Give the backbone structure.
Amino acid sequence: MSGIGKGIITASIGKILQARGFKVTAIKIDPYINLDAGTMNPIEHGEVFVTEDGTECDQDIGNYERFLDQNIFDENYITTGRVYQSVIQKERNLEYGGRCVEVVPDIPNEAIRRIKKVAKNTDSDFILVEIGGTIGEYQNILFIEAGRMMKIKYPESVMFVLVSYLPVPEMIGEMKTKPTQYAVKTLNSAGIQPDIIAGRSESRIDEPRKKKLSVFCNVEPKDIISAPDVKSIYEVPINFENDNLSKIILNKFNLKAVNKDLIEWKKFVNIIKNPKGKIKIGIAGKYFKTGKFTLMDSYLSVIEAIKHASYFWKLEPEIIWLSTEDFEKKSDSIASLQQLDGIIVPGGFGNRGAEGKIKIIEFCRKNKIPFLGLCLGMQLAIVEFARNVCGMEGANSVEINPKTKYPVIDVMKEQKNNIKEKKYGGTMRLGAWDCKISPKTISFKAYKQSLISERHRHRYELNNAFKENLEQKGMIIAGVNPQLDLTEIVELSKHPFFVASQFHPEFKSRPLTPHPLFKEFIRACFK
Ligand code: GLN
């Protein structure tokens, strides 16, 4: 089922094969009609991850990038919408030669064509294809069918891993295998026999349970792999190797196991397990409350970037969720921020919670709490500064108040038509853009270079008509995109760390190479 960690398992399998010296890439199949994740609700679907080439995709692509330490591109993201769109386009172009175009086999065939294209373009030894959703549901059945068709056509080159959940109900106290047995039966009825079962559970699968699963699921006990809950997701590849998973996979493909090397990764995990200190970081957002539950997925890359940077300094971060709307209602809650070592205001859209974020930023500025603003976080830091330092009462972003007297954040020229014509999907300023950093800034100290490139996802920008005014009052324009003269980074001096960027640095942070801005931010927090 969704949410049990197929993405981490896929990425971890990739990692252990990579450690054996193979070239690996991973594809995410997201069984939604949406052409990309840009138009999906983050509370429902999780974070929208952005690639170098500007694809707004599922957060699992971010997991692949972080585990494999390589960039993943647009063609590795497949949705039902994308597949149907190309089939319909080909039909219009008479590419099916006038025959009837059918759901089966034309839809699975298009999925297969896309998988093969990735194989060819990336020249990889292994293509991991993660099919989202749950076996037996209607949504992903055509992709399961694509898998079945591939296995028939290339029996030596295709294998299946079923990720299944083994609950340990509290009142029974025993790990139950029945849901997995049924999952395998359902998969069998779609014509697929799993080669490996990765059993997600709170603990490891013991021998009696492995035997039972083996009999009922027709999989050898050694091919049933435990994927127990872990303190850190980065332990998963190491756990898999303890169960010899890479060897099992390579044997099935008749490949020789070479250069097993997870040394750096193990060192990294060791730091996670033995931190030398702790820090408390607040994230101010609104995409995490759903009913009684608090979800973290909407800010996944921000959380991971905080972790990578903290581990670099051998620190364990504790993340405190600051629900921005609460700060609008209760004015006394703001003082509680004093106990935090640093605060991040991440990206977001629309006016809900915006005033709460502005209050939090004001508190950070005045009380010298390290602050990192990301995208909307930068825009609102400018709004706060304009209002409270430059005396522009009611200053705002036109996204939040289109009638503001001081539109310090305005819609980008290039975006006006998109908004007018309701062209919302995939039209923001997306992906990698250059930024030139001014010398003697915190950002320059962090990056140690003046020309950088970072990933974006926005329609609004600092209104240059107000730039001089803000600068006169002490706001530092630390980074600018030279082509558009668009402000990319602002900073404040006389503050331990006040940096905000129009781009999203979190997307480029990797476990062993944390992002420079996050690294400096965490250093300031610890200090
Ligand atoms: N809503 C803002 C914009 O479109 C910020 C977007 C974001 O934070 N990713 O510019």
